[in-house]
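Hi Y.,

Following your request, here is the sequence exactly as I used it, all 291 residues.
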Amino acid sequence: MARKKVFSTKLPTQEQLMVPTLKALVKLGGSGTIEEINESVYQIAKLTDEQLQIPHDETGLRSEIDYRLAWSKTYLKKFGLIENSSRAVWSLTKSDIDVDKYDGYEIARQVREAGRATRPKEEVEEETIDFVEQIEDVKDWKELLLNVLLSIPPASFERLVQRLLRESGFVQVEVTGKSGDGGIDGKGIVKISGFLSFHILFQCKRYKGSISSSQIRDFRGAMQGRADKGLFVTTGTFSREAVKEATRDGAPPIDLIDGEQLCENLKEFKLGVETKFVEAVEIKNEWFSHL
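Below is the corresponding structure, written out as tokens. Let me know if you'd prefer a different format.
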């Protein structure tokens, strides 16, 4: 398991995040995606930008607060208050929940005690390790893929994004990459149900850090009057202010794809990423004893 970290900025514990998570789901109407829930928790818990920028580890693929929120959801699920679908949508198990009567530390205590009571200690500890390893496994393949993307030439990365957009249903996708064009790397058209079409300008940035709000503003300035929407693709992350700027009221919208989402998209369309399923065989000794 990972070593304990010391943070300069105090963060709420996974126990302290459980009630805000429940409140977020109530606010969202009873269900929401991980991104929607986490964003709502940030506001409810009044987390600062400095707190949200603390990485879980040196890769920067996941923030520490999102890591703790993942644990909070796991405990709430084991306690029976929330559930999740195969499409990563989390929901309350009952609509008339009284959030104020719950305490995160008490929920965690009961879940741990229930685990110890029903299974040997070794199995409980093994399950905890498995959960951490699931997160670490996700991090590992994405980290490897992002390192590959950071090593290829800029023109190759632009062509990769072009291919990804085509696989996603875009048409007339072109890589322009003109110098002095405000960072615009290409354009394309996305059609909705065969009736509506939107002209898109996109920017590709191979980057290991966090994209700032000023970079989003520069991109928007370059695309002004030339497209319906913008698309910013990076191998890095977006600062909280950059996300706000991308969806600012009264300004042309810009969709954002960070490194983690880019990895998921490449995996979905099998672009340089292959998923293999391993067959597990289990021998049931008790079955043979009845012969």
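Residues 262 and 289 are 51 Å apart (CA to CA).

Thanks again,
Q.
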